[in-house]
Amino acid sequence: MIRPPLFTPRFLYLLFTITIFGLSWSSYLILPKFLREELNAARDTIGYIAAIPGISAAVAAPLIGRLLDRYGRQYFFTLGCLIVVGTSLAFLFVDRVGPLLYIAQAIQGLGFLVAFNAASSLGADLAPPTRMAEALGIVGASNLIMNAVAPSIAEEIASRASWQHVFIFCAVIGGLATLLTFGLRDVQHAPQALEAPVNRRRAFMRPGLVSLYVGTIAFAFAFATLFNFHQPFALEAGITEVKPFFIGYTITAFSMRVFFGRLADRLGALRVTTASLLAYAAVPSLLALLGPSKIGVVGAALGITHGMLYPAMTAAVVERAGAALRGSAITYMNGSFHLGMAAAGMVAGNIAERFGYTAAFVGASAVTLTGLLLVVSFREPPYRESSP
User: Across 53-146, where does the E strand assignment appear?
Assistant: First the structure.
């Protein structure tokens, strides 16, 4: 049986655009180092600041989802890129922990939500149904590869020049991504399910779908705990470079999505989601066990689990929501992810400040296991529109 093509010129152009956007946005993954070294922020303060983008993204997710389904993807991808450019310029004037930093972080979280969800939805639109999970994994991988490249470049620029040069770099690359979005075009869909608003609401409110959103919150909590706090964890131990974590994470996550991207399509999205969640729960505790000198190993372990889990979870959400609600479903899931990241910033940061990093990492593992229990407790088939 011949598989329908995925890597069409339109899909490849989308991947390139997402990669350029990721080069700008992913540079901010190293922001905790800026907060610790330049602004001398405490552990809990770093957590609060890291939580701000997640809060703004989670609050805006329902509205953005409806707008994506109603007005299309390309315009919002452009808008999201412009927002990231604006916030990069705002960071040039951040010299202390204060209102400007908080506002820039909040708007940047909104910009990433808008851009990445528009791009993910467009990628799903362009993908054949039988290659949905693979397509979502590749779309994520095109941004993911920058999770190693961008922080490494940013860390080098900061050490050789200044953090202001890092923010200028982010603004310039973000501007390039903005220009590239004008070459994208939305996919036209036949109108579906517009005459059945009750069924549309049920597509989102069923326990089986809600459990996936809660599961997303749970693994996002672990993800953000590791991303936000491995940096001060290492810096306080005398380790000056944190790039091994990002390099290890990106190599394995990218490899999993490229070489095992079809696994969820073959074995089932929910089955792969469940297995990946179980492995994911062990990674934060692994950092507590191995210590800050092994952040590269822990980053690689996180990449393996995240590289399998995120596209599989996304595919499961899309299956249960239905094609007509794809943009909203992906946005709700990504909003859930940002909500989990925000919770990690506030909760894990306080735990680290009061009880130490080990308690914060072990707690993140426990939260992920709780999410796994909810996901496996509510199983149901993909959503089907009822006949009019």
Answer: none
Q: Which of 103, 137, 152, 109 is nearest to 18 (CA)?
A: 137
Please report, for residues 229, 289, 293, 369, the alpha-carbon distance to residue 362 in angstroms, rounded to integers and kept in the order given: 13, 9, 18, 11
Closest Cα to residue 134, out of 274, 17, 256, 280?
Answer: 256
pLDDT tens digits, 86-138 = 999 999 999 999 999 999 999 998 998 899 889 988 888 888 877 877 787 78
- Whole-structure pTM over 0.85, yes or no? no
> Hey, what are 321's tokens?
């929501």
| Mean pLDDT along residues 370-383 | 78
Give the range among 42-46, 59-63, 272-276 with minimum mean pLDDT.
Answer: 59-63
Domains of the chain: 9-186+196-377 (1.20.1250.20)
Q: What is the per-residue DSSP string for 359-376?
A: HHHHHHHHHHHHHHHHHH
User: From residue 122, how far is each of 21, 77, 109, 316, 327 by CA, in Å?
Assistant: 15, 9, 20, 17, 8
Residue with tokens 């095992």: 260
Comparing 382 with 211, which gets the higher pLDDT?
A: 211
DSSP 91: H
Q: 121, 73 in Cβ contact below 8 A?
A: yes
Give the distance between the most distant pair of CA atoms in the chain. 65
Angle made by CA atoms 49, 50, 52, in degrees to the nearest 5: 70
What are the Cα distances from residue 379, in Å, to 36, 71, 210, 356?
43, 32, 11, 37
At residue 387, what are phi and psi to the nearest 5 degrees?
-75, 145
C-alpha triplet 28, 32, 38: angle, nearest 5°: 105
Contact 344, 220 (CB under 8 A): yes
Neighbours of 375 (CB within 10 A): 23
- For the chain, the first-to-last Cα distance in angstroms comes to 34
Q: Which residue spans within the chain are E strands per DSSP? A: none
CB 65 within 8 A of CB 327: yes
